[in-house]
Amino acid sequence: MSNYLKKAKELQCFSGFDVKDYSLSNNNISDELGTLPAITLEKVLELASIYPDYKYEKLTDALQKNFNIENIIYGSGSEDLIVRINLILKQIGPICILYPNFYRIMETAGPHIKIFAEYNKQSQFIDIETVKKHLDGSNKIRSLWITNPNPMIGKVFYKNDLIKMIKDHYNILFIIDESAIDFIKNSESFSLLDLSQQVENLIVLRSFSKLFGLAGLRIGFATGKSRFLRDVNKIGPTFPLSTIAEYFAINILAKKELVSQICEKIEKNKNIIRRLLEKNPNIYFSESITNCLFFGSNQLDIFEEFLKLGIISLKLNETEGIKEKNFVRITIHSSEKSFNNLFISLSKFIN
Question: Domains in the chain and their CATH numbers?
Fold first, then answer.
């Protein structure tokens, strides 16, 4: 899978007209929610003048209290953790990846074993039976990457199904990327953060890039009881978390009530956009539990049609593991400005 971030930038630069990117899965924060803590220029300069605290004691304390977890390691975004984890996994044995998935996981894994997720367009959930059959039928698999919820299909696993599979296959290291899980209402009903503190064969990744729209600050962390985490931490982050990034992360963790506000706003905007698109009988949808809409058409090249209107969607029908025709993903933001731009453009498409 290619770098769709790079492709979006190329489209913005060379399309010849104003385009807006709705292809990436991270949220665009709305100003009225006041999600980001207020910060003065003086405070920015003060933080910028301080070297990072390589132990991240204040951030670690905030995460431990917020999620009731121990053994936390950090990365310059979850992407940095993915790179470092795969460096070590390749030394252990063949890496297994559940497709479709985030391109950086595949890109940094080298030659790997592929398992393809089975799902029904009418359901928000992924079938776990196919995954278990592969694990039961192979003695080569030593590790398995799962992104939950899956950003390329918008679906999630039932928590109890994942728990049973992980406990039954204690000889396999499961790495669960939960970067997008905050978009789900009652996310604790799906997250495996609690299980990661109990078993040795599970690592969970989280990010501040998605719901909070802080992709540029590069804040990611991983947790688990596994001794494997210590080996990853020995490599160390490619770049340390800046004091400014740590400041924002700590302050955001203190604003728990805003998470549900953001999710509710996204869900409202998502329903409005879906109802608008449903007016076109040539469009079919695949159910999504995330902040993204997934849809396709047997008649229209939706990606090209949207591009004419200045909308960059994520073209998915060329993605390995997706069978739908002319299939795209658009991200719905909590930002009123972003939502209004999308609604106006799509209204032209429908008309």
Answer: 4-33+256-350 (3.90.1150.10), 41-253 (3.40.640.10)
